[in-house]
Amino acid sequence: MIKPNAEPAPARGRIEPPTLTAIRHAADLLRAGDIVGMPTETVYGLGADALNPEAVKKIFAAKGRPADHPLIVHLPDASHMVRWAASIPKDAIALARAFWPGPLTLILKRADGVPDEVTGGQDTVGLRVPSHSIALALLQVFDSGIAAPSANRFGRISPTTAEHVHEELGDKVAMVLDGGACAVGIESTIVDFSRDTPEILRPGAITADDIAGVIGRRPRVRGEMGESVQEAAALSHAPRVSGALAAHYAPATPLRLLPAEKLIEEAAMLAGEGSRVAVLAHTVADPHDARLIWQSVQCDAAAYGHDLYANLRKLDASGADFILLEALPASEDWRAIADRLGRAVVGSGAEQDET
Ligand code: TXA
Ligand code: MG
Questions:
Q1: How far apart, in whole angstroms, are the C-alpha atoms of residue 130 and residue 143?
Q2: pLDDT at residue 354 above 50?
Q3: 315-348 pLDDT tens trace
Q4: Which residues touch 327 (CB under 8 Å, ≥6 apart)?
Q5: Sign of CA dihedral 46, 49, 50, 54
Q6: Which of 48, 187, 248, 265 is the one with CA 20 to 30 A from 128?
C-alpha cells in the first residue's frame, strides 16, 4: 500500500486544543489572511489581521454583519496602543493600567494607517488587551493587532465556548482555538474617550463605579438618562455600535422578562394554553411542574453572566414556544446583564421582524 507522505490538511473549522503548535498555526493562518475563532475572557472572537483589509472583510462576510460596523482591535499589550491611536488621554492610560489585560475596550482617535474596514470609516478605533491566556499567547506570537468581533452571526447570541463558535460559523473559520468556557461570559465594557467626557457605550463586567474609582469621575453611561434601550440606540450623536442596537444578542424563541411574583403564574397560564414554556429564574424556586423547562441560576451577577449566553442557547434549543426570564435586580453589578437581556427581548422570536 502506498502511504501519502504528508498528513491530510485538517478540515476547515475544526476545534483545536490550544497547544503551542495550534497557536502558531492560528497565527500563520492570520498572517495568510484567513480568519480564526479565538477564546477571550469575555466571549469568543472571530479574529483577522487588523492591518489586512481583505482579511477583515472576511469577518463581515462570515458574520453577515453590515460593513460599516467597527471592530475592536485586540493587542498583545498596552505598548502597542501608539501604533493604533493618534492620541491617548491620560484617563484612558490610567484605565488601561488598571484593567488591562481585561474586559475593557477603549475608543480612541485612530492613528493613520488603521484600515477603514476596521473602523467602519470612523475616525476612532476600539482597542483592548484581553486577559485569556490563549488569546494573549496568540497575540504575542502574532505580534500585532487582531480585529475580532464576537464570533456569532450578526444579531445572534455571542459564543462562550469553542463548540458555540463551531455551531455559529462552521467552516467559515479556518479553525477554532479551544480555550474552554469564557470566564466572564458577556462582552467587554466599552468606554469612549473620543469626545470631551468619557462615556460607557456598552456596559460590561467593569462598571461605571470601577472606572470612577480609577479616574476620579463617573463616566457618562449611555442609557442612564432615562432613555429606553431603543432611544439610547437611536441617539443621533452615537457612533455605530452594533452592541447598541435595540435588537441584539437574540434567541429565535420569543423572550419575556417578568417580575418574580408573576413568573410561575404566567408560565402556568401559557402551559395551560398548550404552549411549551422554558423559564430562567434566579430567586423563584422550581415549582416542579412537568410542563415547564425550568433553569435555575445563582442570584449572583458574575455567575449569572458567566452562564447567560449558554443558558439562552440551551433554552432556545429546548423546543419551547416562549422563554420567560425573571426580572433582574436593579443594582449596578447587574447593569450589563440587564442591558443584554433587554436587547435579547427586543430581538427575539416574532419581534425580530419588526426591528
Ligand atoms: O468582549 C468583547 O468586546 C468581544 C471580545 C471578542 O473581545 N468583542 C466584541 O466585539 O464584543 P463586537 O464587534 O461583537 O462588539 C464590539 C462593539 C461593536 O458594537 C462595535 O460597533 C463597537 O464595539 N465598536 C468597535 N469599534 C468602535 C468605535 N471605533 N466606535 C464605537 N464603537 C465601536
Ligand atoms: Mg457582538
A1: 14
A2: no
A3: 999 999 999 999 999 999 999 999 999 989 988 8
A4: 257, 258, 259, 260
A5: negative
A6: 248
- What size, in residues, is the chain? 355
Calpha distance 108→125 (Å, rounded): 6
Cβ-based burial of 54 (10 A; exposed 0-12, middle 13-18, buried ≥19): exposed
Q: Is 241 in the pocket of ligand 1 (CB under 6 A)?
A: yes
For the sheet with 189-192, list strands across it.
Answer: 14-16, 175-177, 36-38, 45-49, 146-147, 72-74, 124-128, 104-109, 189-192, 199-202, 220-221
Distance 72 CA to ligand 1 centre (A): 5
- Closest by CA to 315, choosing from 293, 287, 333, is 293
Residue 5 has a pLDDT of 64
Would you say the C-alpha torsion 113, 116, 122, 127 has a positive or negative sign? negative
Q: Quick one: pLDDT at residue 224? A: 67
Alpha-carbon gap, residue 355 to 346, rounded angstroms? 8
Residue 297 and residue 329 in contact, taking contact as beta carbons nearer than 8 Å: no
pTM above 0.90, yes or no: yes
Any ligand 1 atom below 6 A from CB of 194:
no
Q: Is the CB of 148 under 6 A from ligand 1?
A: yes
SS3 67: coil
Cα gap 167→164, rounded to integer Å? 5
* Number of alpha carbons in the 13 Å side-chain half-sphere of residue 123: 6
What is the residue with the minimal CA distance to atom 20 of ligand 1? 241
H helices present in 144-204, as ranges:
162-169
Q: Residues of the chain with pLDDT > 90: what percent?
A: 83
Q: Domains in the chain, please, with CATH?
A: 14-237 (3.90.870.10), 255-347 (3.40.50.11030)
Instruction: Find out whether the beta carbon of 295 lies less than 6 Å from any atom of ligand 1.
Output: no
Amino acid code (one letter) for 28: D
Chain CA centroid to CA 217, Å = 26
